[in-house]
Amino acid sequence: MTDSRDVQHPRDRIMQTMDRIYRYRMTTTSGGNLSIRDSEGNIWITPARVDKGNLTRNDIICVRADGTVEGPHPPSSEFPFHKAIYEAREDVHAIVHAHPVALVAFSICQQVPDTRLFHQALSVCGKVGFAPYACPGSQALGKSIADQFAQGCDSVILENHGVVVAGVDFASAFQRFEAFEFAGKTLIKAKQLGRVLALTDEQLQQAASRSVDFTSYEPGVACTREQELRRQLCEFIRRGCRQRLLISTEGSFSARVNDNTFLITPTQRDREQLRAEDFVLVDGERREAGKLASRAANAHRAIYEKHPHVNAIVFAHPVNATAFSVTDVSLDVRTIPESYVFLRDVARVPYGIQYGNDGTIADHVTERNPAAILENDGVLVTGSTVLDAFDRLEVLESTAEAVINAKAIGEVSVMPPTVIDELCQEFKLG
Hints:
This is Class II aldolase/adducin family protein. The chain has about 425 residues and is of the alpha+beta class. It contains 13 helices and 17 strands. A hairpin with a 2-residue loop joins strand 12 (about 280-285) and strand 13. The mean pLDDT is about 95.
């Protein structure tokens, strides 16, 4: 998503985004720098030697087009490569550089993550590149990085250093950075499980061509149930982003209002910044006027139509569970009682089922099996309430992480049938 008309001051946008990156543990107190080139050719950038976890708007430095510097600190020591990138690419107006641990791992192995794991990662990250090492802050580093961007790269791994991404505006640069790190983290986890399965050109096209052709309508006055569900969706999506169960560019969350209508996340909107009024009311094949429903809306509708017990649905990309989705390894949740009681046996859905308009995605979840792994596309979780769906999503991700961690220690021991039978009897599981 890009901003059609950005009215937020560069100081505020940089400060807020650095806070988000630091809060997500995607950089350190001293690491990373962000910049924006405004319409007058000035470059606004984070300062040198200032705590990234406690940045204020007044700390942001402006380097004017004539080279004069305004602000209480010197600009970031990495300013030379920001300037070099802007000179190499007229279309670039925002840059994010940081040291997220997964991409740093790739940088010290001299590798670039394969973004063909997911259609969205490939689309958002753009062309990826690798810049040979040069001393931080040097003109040589600026040239090494700018050369990659001049060749059309949008996301560049810096050898033994970190990553730089650029965008037409700050929203797209941040989303590109987040999606690139997500792909890197997922790859690292997946490689601990088995063979990683990248998408073919045909599969990528299948995802890119899906659409939601709903007609527009003006709904009546919102009932109190709809109002409450809008509040809950806001709360849990924001929590999901902050717990890294969701990322800003991907995933959808919905809640049933009544038999025929449900609320769902809008398409191409930053998930963490959604407000109650941003959610789209869908009634059959109609969607609330002036809003665009998630491209997964048809899949949500099919599940609601087939399963009256389902009142909330989430398609998400938590890293550990998603790692299973990009390998041919099944996730066995018969590891601890809570996992089995909440999730039962987690199905695996062949790639592309969720993109079809034939409703067959609904066949892959049941009241007994409320969650599924979607090949190369994260997970699907259903629930009786928004809280129930979110709770199951948390349990699914924590179970996946525990299994991956256990594989580094020894052989995973699952609960035997006698224990499963006992759980079914004790918790009245059908």
